[in-house]
Amino acid sequence: MNSRHILLMDGPDHKGLIFTVTRVLFEHQQNIIRNDEYVSPSGFFFMRTEFEGNIDPDIVLQALQKALPEGLRLRLKSDRKKDIVLMVTKEHYCLAELLARYAFDELGANIKAVIGNYNTLRPFVEKFNIPFYHVSHEGLSRERHEEELLKILLRYQPEFVVLAKYMRILSPEFVANFPEKIINIHHSFLPAFIGANPYKQAYERGVKIIGATAHFVNNNLDEGPIIAQDVKRVSHRQTAADMATLGRDIEKSVLSEALKLVFADRVFIYRNRTVIL
Amino acid sequence: MNSRHILLMDGPDHKGLIFTVTRVLFEHQQNIIRNDEYVSPSGFFFMRTEFEGNIDPDIVLQALQKALPEGLRLRLKSDRKKDIVLMVTKEHYCLAELLARYAFDELGANIKAVIGNYNTLRPFVEKFNIPFYHVSHEGLSRERHEEELLKILLRYQPEFVVLAKYMRILSPEFVANFPEKIINIHHSFLPAFIGANPYKQAYERGVKIIGATAHFVNNNLDEGPIIAQDVKRVSHRQTAADMATLGRDIEKSVLSEALKLVFADRVFIYRNRTVIL
Amino acid sequence: MNSRHILLMDGPDHKGLIFTVTRVLFEHQQNIIRNDEYVSPSGFFFMRTEFEGNIDPDIVLQALQKALPEGLRLRLKSDRKKDIVLMVTKEHYCLAELLARYAFDELGANIKAVIGNYNTLRPFVEKFNIPFYHVSHEGLSRERHEEELLKILLRYQPEFVVLAKYMRILSPEFVANFPEKIINIHHSFLPAFIGANPYKQAYERGVKIIGATAHFVNNNLDEGPIIAQDVKRVSHRQTAADMATLGRDIEKSVLSEALKLVFADRVFIYRNRTVIL
Amino acid sequence: MNSRHILLMDGPDHKGLIFTVTRVLFEHQQNIIRNDEYVSPSGFFFMRTEFEGNIDPDIVLQALQKALPEGLRLRLKSDRKKDIVLMVTKEHYCLAELLARYAFDELGANIKAVIGNYNTLRPFVEKFNIPFYHVSHEGLSRERHEEELLKILLRYQPEFVVLAKYMRILSPEFVANFPEKIINIHHSFLPAFIGANPYKQAYERGVKIIGATAHFVNNNLDEGPIIAQDVKRVSHRQTAADMATLGRDIEKSVLSEALKLVFADRVFIYRNRTVIL
């Protein structure tokens, strides 16, 4: 029986990389379904290859590693769903979108658990038979609170942690546990209006367009690689509150779009940017 | 013979403002074609009224001033074309767009002259039989250079000065000569990437959307009231140079759109924001 | 205690309409919060006035009717939530969006019931404690089936019936029971690709943009007044199935946007078009 | 000295196509700059390969033809500018955009001549020192008129003929002279509002979005492969005339975008769709 695999490859460019990969797959009777590659102006090579065939994928991977120059990173993914954990605070809209997609099997991921630093969203989450953990930050140091979070996360070993409006800053130490694995939705069209209350800032600046940004989380708040962005037009008629409402719609659709790309293994990270193949 | 007028009114809100204006116009047999108003959350009132009738507009204006509470600003505009002067450096694309619209009588303004701090664009401007002034900044202090610019501008008494990619910073003293009359196109989706080389910054940050902003110029560079903005999607495939090319298309269309609004007397300025009626 | 009201007025234009309305409201100590009006090129007048004050609204309405010329339609609305009923078939995405908004009190309407011609969506609806009625069309004539639907609808007396992917055509006789009250989401950027399987048609035509349309339902399928539309870019890489997935996201956000406008009493209908104030 | 080439390849998919091409280029010391390929769901293969090296491109082409299975179409393009001829009627806006881009060497093409069935645009074209031919259709049969057009076109042997608002229908016989070489801008978001006066149709239908479509011309008017489309939002406030003005801005930017893709050899045609790599 044939099964489908995704090969992700990145590293310094060399002559003949596509040639070598396609040769090895050809020799192993694997059929390439889709192949996308990109070479950055600085000479860094990225390739995503979907292929299909009835062979042990590890054998293919070993053959590729042998045939390719050193210094390239190779990752072989099956096309099964990712295991994820969501983190939330009190706002429901991104969570509700993800749960509805999950309920109808459209998310491309299994939501193993939801962690909230408030208990507000428990009833909604439990409608969907997903465990909800309330880990209050009150009375705890950041360090102690993150230890509690970590304990739960490690139990589930998620492939991705999605901050679906988790409104607390995570320490670099915490983030370091999940490199390139935490995804956040930022309530602004980055790099604009960094910090709190961006819709009030947008209103006061009189912008004619507002937006949202989904990005990986690294050590610098809001400065990780951008995965997806979108915008909507506004006018002077929108109050700061109207902009916040509209902004929420953008946030939830941008987060959805970003997760679709990530869960399909289409996103590479390079020098704090994403390459999406 | 009937002629068309535009009444612009702004000031602190009072009960009955629309009532008073419509009553006075009604009593003077003026026919309201279109009326738009807006009250800001802070209680500031804006109204733009297009009306038509065969009466001396000054009589209407006086009657309105008499009937309305103090502290309101009233401006009465005819619907004739505005006189404008363009300022440029070396980049042609916004200039070419405005000249083409002007050549076919679609700009809503008369371009009285173009001033460049380089001579590069003279041949193109002269194709359209518009005077071009080369006022080089080389060897001149900013003060002296701006004096030269001012001399030309004062000769033309433009109602608006359009910076169609004029790449030098204007001093607050210069700007003070043309309050709410200088319009700039900014090569970025403000408030992002302030400063030089925004497309390189956008590339390095890996944004998925780039944009441009047309705004009035006040004393703080790039911080005047925003008139229009637009954006386009980009991906990792676009180099910084590609983004610059695409950005130019956005800049020229955003500047065009902003000028259309300004020349139709649809733009009010309030607390560093625009209200567009 | 002050309460807020919305006056909707439409009819042939006359001199002094705004004047008369604002005078009457002024005389009754009602405070205008927001006033928007529009006169069509053919001379039809529309006005939406939000006002606030502590008086019996019927007294204001009578005073207005007395003061205004005949032939104008006046409607006075409170700002309470509308009662609505949803109709569905098997597709969940629009339904899930509306239920999530309702669950968090953001819909501007009370969902009194959901009617499905299949039973598929019952479990999801019941998570939200809303009655679900399964009215199968199987073995019934269209007439008989619509009688069953009507029985339920008349019990709830909904102010609007929302077809959230209800995939059966309604007869003109049925529609006539709910004039200007049935809202549909159409899986296409109207007027394109009328009929079944629009995403397959879009794929085969090779369009670069797909869209969706929310509209009122009148006797001609898909030809009622358009309330909202939106689009997204596609490329040759999207299959017909990909376009359908993307199209669903557009459909749900367009339907949401349209309902927001309708439930806020901002939509007038005139000559098969909408005027949105 | 290295020079850059573009290989376009399309045909039925076979195992190993990418492998074979990259091997041949590798063996001939050609360096792949960018490679994009696509396989349609129906199993048709498309590849565009930009490469660089100091060898006779014909030798590479022959080697590729020898190594590849039969039935594939191979085209080798240099990256020089295309020779084109524009055809116009009376409307200037698309023409003005293309001439401005050409004047500043940004079009990616040489405009060898402009042909008008009216003489209206001659003065504007001649500002740019481009020959203008007035070929009036008055008093001529379609056949005779097209013979006159053909005479001029054959003299210039253009690689592409751009209909920049040429408002007459071309016969299938005429079109057959330039297969996949005539590009038109359609004043509508196809497939909507086919026929005359689309903005009046759009106004009357009350659409909330209008658009334009650039496409290749085949025998069926407005039904050739779509290259690019774009849209803008409108409201009830726009008259049919306003929509026409806005529509022109969309038309000119969509035509520009389409030509950029075509002149860069990025557009394949397959089953009346385009594949853009």
Features:
277 residues, homotetramer, purine biosynthesis (chains A, B, C, D), 31% strand, 7-stranded mixed beta sheet, alpha/beta, 13 strands, Rossmann fold, Alpha-Beta Plaits, 8 helices, 4-stranded antiparallel beta sheet
What does this molecule look like?
Four copies of one chain form a homotetramer. Chain A has helices spanning 17-27, 57-67, 93-103, 122-126, 142-156, 172-175, 198-205, 240-263; strands spanning 3-12, 31-39, 44-53, 73-78, 82-88, 109-116, 132-134, 160-163, 182-186, 209-216, 226-233, 267-270, 273-276. In chain A, strands 7-6-5-8-9-10-11 form a seven-stranded mixed β-sheet, with helices on both faces. A four-stranded antiparallel β-sheet of chain A has the order 2-3-1-4, with helices on one face. A two-stranded antiparallel ribbon of chain A has the order 12-13. Chain A contains eight helices and 13 strands. In chain A, strand 6, helix 4 and strand 7 form a beta-alpha-beta unit. Chain A is an alpha/beta fold. Chain A starts with a strand and ends with a strand. In chain A, 32% of the residues lie in helices and 31% in strands. Chain A has two domains: 3-78, Alpha-Beta Plaits, CATH 3.30.70.260; 82-276, 3-Layer(aba) Sandwich (Rossmann fold), CATH 3.40.50.170. Chains in contact: A-B, A-C, A-D, B-C, B-D, C-D. The interface between A and B is medium-sized, with 31 and 31 residues. Chains A, B, C, D: Residues 5-67 form the ACT domain. Chains A, B, C, D: Pfam families: ACT, Formyl_trans_N. Chains A, B, C, D: Belongs to the PurU family. Chains A, B, C, D: It is an enzyme of class 3 (hydrolase). Chains A, B, C, D: It catalyses: (6R)-10-formyltetrahydrofolate + H2O = (6S)-5,6,7,8-tetrahydrofolate + formate + H(+).
